[in-house]
Write a structure and sequence with these properties.
The protein is built from 7 helices and 14 strands. By secondary structure, the chain is an alpha+beta fold. Helix 1 packs antiparallel against helix 2, helix 4 runs antiparallel to helix 7 (about 260-275) and helix 5 packs parallel to helix 6. The structure holds D-MYO-inositol-1-phosphate and calcium ion (3 copies).
């Protein structure tokens, strides 16, 4: 594994993009009936496509020599304190949606270096969108499928820096578990409305792209958030735990991400009720 030079990160991004594109084509059309199994409980599902996507991407990334920390089959030991580079992969984020409606699911891949997301590749295959980012250099969106070379609409378009909108001027995305929480209730009241897509990676991309001003959710895993966190950081979002503590993508836990103003407002509502 080479040093963190910018050329090197571009190569790793290109490799991640090729891997995700190929896996997305498979997931969009696996060519056989879905086989669905439950893991820890009846709503914790996995299919042969989740496993097949992880296998395909892992095969593609093998040449990079960087270990993979993925939801279904690959683990980096002691990832919570891991230093160095690792690919963090959620082969299908939103498996329940994938099984039920085949919409609102994502493939999320990030290169994490000493705990910091450094390269992100996040596909929304049904929308045909591919989000990418490199730490310190920005975030982009482009068509998932490669268009004819040289056409403008196939080129990556930089995501704009977020306008620092307050809660009253945007949507709040929250998971249903949270709606029982009085603090979130107040924040929903203060916002334009609540949404929940059921795929953490897409919910973070929505904040990064300016479609929502805040996303809050408890109990997320590194693979749910690693790519989305970089997209959000590169567009100027504030990102912490739901109690305001610093966010570390290597550790499971809650997430509160949004425009700096909306993030502070939600934190205020959560704290006021928590006191
Ligand atoms: C899930 C989705 C969902 C979130 C769950 C995650 P999966 O990921 O991101 O939105 O509420 O906490 O586990 O299992 O479909 O990859
Ligand atoms: Ca899962
Ligand atoms: Ca997930
Ligand atoms: Ca998953």
């Amino acid at each position: 594994v080479g040093p963190t030079s910018s050329a090197c990160l571009e190569e790793l991004l290109a490799c991640g993009v090729a891997a995700v594109r190929q896996a997305a084509a498979f997931a969009l059309d696996p060519g056989e009936e879905l086989r669905v199994e439950a893991k820890a409980h009846r709503n914790d599902l996995v299919t042969q496509v989740d496993r097949g996507v992880e296998e395909r991407i892992a095969g593609h990334l093998e040449a990079t020599g960087v270990p993979i920390h993925g939801e279904e089959a690959h683990r980096v030991e002691d990832f919570e304190t891991y230093l160095g580079r690792a690919w963090v992969l959620d082969p299908i984020d939103g498996t329940l949606n994938y099984v039920a409606t085949h919409r609102d699911w994502a493939i999320s891949l990030a290169l994490v270096d000493d705990g910091a997301p450094t390269v992100a590749v996040l596909a929304d295959p049904v929308a045909g969108r591919l989000y990418t980012a490199i730490r310190g250099r920005g975030a982009w969106v482009q068509p998932l499928l490669e268009g004819s070379a040289g056409t403008d609409d196939a080129a990556p378009r930089a995501l704009e820096r977020l306008e620092d909108l307050p809660l009253s001027e945007g949507m709040l995305i929250a998971h249903y578990q949270l709606t029982q929480d009085a603090g979130i209730g107040q924040a929903i009241e203060a916002s334009r409305g609540m949404r929940c897509y059921g795929a953490a990676a897409l919910e973070m991309a929505e904040v990064a792209a300016g479609g929502a001003v805040v996303y809050a959710q408890p109990r997320l895993q590194p693979w749910d958030v690693a790519a989305g966190a970089l997209l959000c950081a590169e567009t100027g979002a504030a990102l912490t735990r739901m109690d305001g503590a610093p966010f570390d993508v290597r550790r499971a836990g809650s997430l509160l991400v949004g425009t700096p103003t909306a993030h502070a407002e939600v934190l205020g509502h959560l704290r006021a009720v928590g006191d």
